Amino acid sequence: MVLQAILAIFIKYGLTGLFLSSFLSSLVFIPAYSSFLIPLYVGLHFSPWQILIAISIGAVGGELVNYYLGFVGSKYVKKDDVKKAEKWLTKWGEMSVFIVNLIPAFPADVVNALVGFFHMDLKTFVIGMSVAKVIQYALLIFGSEILFNFVSII
What we know:
It is built from seven helices and no strands. It has helices spanning 2-25, 38-43, 48-73, 83-92, 95-102, 108-117, 122-153. The chain is elongated, with a radius of gyration of 17 Å. The protein has one domain.
C-alpha cells in the first residue's frame, strides 16, 4: 500500500520529483541518497538521458550549496578543529573532490562542504564534482537499464 503511494508520487511528479529529490538529498544537512531512485525511474521507462540530466543538475546544485555553506562557515570555525580533514584534503588535493563524488552512497556532501571551508577554487570544485556525479549517475542509469533489459529477456 505504501509502495503504491510512493510510486504514484514519482509518476505524478516525474523528472521534477527526481530533480528535487537529488537537490535535497545532496544537501549536507539532509542525509539521503537519490541514486537509490535511479532503478525506479529506469523501471518506469523514463528516458535514461532525461534521468541523467535531472539527477545531475539537482545534485550539482545541492553540492554548490554545501560548498557555499563551508565557505561561509569557515569564518565561524577554528581551523585547528578540522586539522585531520585538512590533512586528508591536502594529501589528495583536487582529486579528492572527483574521487568522493564518484562513489555512490558516499557522504560526499561533507567533503564538499569542507572543500568550501578550505576555499578550494570554485571552478576546480565544480568541474571535478560535476564530472564525477555525471559519471556515477550514468553508470547507475545505464547499468540499471542493461539489467532491466536482461531480466525482461529471461
